[in-house]
Design goal:
The protein has 240 residues and is an all-alpha fold. The protein is 78% helix and 0% strand.
């Protein structure tokens, strides 16, 4: 009875065949798991790179074709299936949905659903990367186009301005959304947009001025010294 238990005990320094077999097996399993994980990430990154390249090419040509959008969608779906929480993938998916919403003939319910989908992608990206100004600017763009000037709109406006004060695209989105919905903004958001206009006139005066002229907001640009004769002439004309 006791002899059986003693027989199974291994003396110090003796070779345990079970241990010598188990260690290499465990290492092999670990290596295979790491290899599988890495291959999934590489595959997802490749699909995302291809989708992003196609999107950038369409932006450069200012031509978003249906076939091009479909190619991006297919590749991006593969990337998200492999890495569903990657913020870059989510933001590109939101951007793609917003592009589809802006295509000719896309109106009404279809357009609204595409914009809501885009906004949801950006919200998911912000859960992973909450301090990324471009995600906030993209969410702001969706809220802007949906006409949803609510607490989330205000948060996106403030967050984009605070986290990307010198990012040109972020800066212009804050100005665009702020001026488009000026009458619905609170006093604090109006002050923020005014301050961002002052900054933008130093960094990208032409683009900022074009927005002010489009929305007929001389009060946001006139009186600010920019050294731009075109702005001075416009101010004299509209304020007469």
């Amino acid at each position: 009875m006791f002899g059986f238990g003693i027989h199974l005990q291994m003396k110090p320094g003796s070779n345990n065949p079970f241990a010598t077999k188990a260690i290499p097996t465990a290492l092999l399993i670990l290596c295979l798991a790491v290899f599988f994980w890495a291959s999934q990430r590489v595959s997802a990154a490749w699909q995302f790179f291809a989708a992003e390249t196609i999107t950038q090419n369409m932006h450069g040509a200012d031509a978003f074709t249906l076939s091009g959008l479909d190619q991006v969608t297919i590749r991006l779906k593969k990337a998200l299936a492999l890495y569903p929480r990657h913020p870059d993938y989510l933001d590109l998916a939101g951007h793609l949905s917003e592009i589809r919403a802006s295509q000719p003939g896309v109106v009404g319910r279809e357009q609204r659903e595409l914009l809501e989908t885009a906004a949801e992608y950006h919200r998911k990206a912000l859960l992973v990367r909450p301090r990324w100004p471009y995600s906030w600017a993209s969410l702001l763009s969706c809220k802007d186009k949906l006409g949803q000037v609510d607490a989330e709109f205000n948060r996106a406006l403030n967050s984009a301005a605070a986290l990307g004060p010198w990012e040109p695209a972020v800066q212009l989105q804050v100005l665009r959304s702020g001026m488009r919905h000026w009458d619905q903004l609170r006093r604090s958001e109006r002050a923020l947009v005014s301050a961002k206009m002052s900054d933008a006139l130093k960094m990208q005066p032409r683009e900022a001025f074009e927005l002010a002229r489009f929305y007929v907001r001389p009060d946001l640009v006139c009186g600010i010294e920019t050294g731009q004769s075109q702005i001075a002439r416009w101010c004299r004309k509209v304020l007469q």
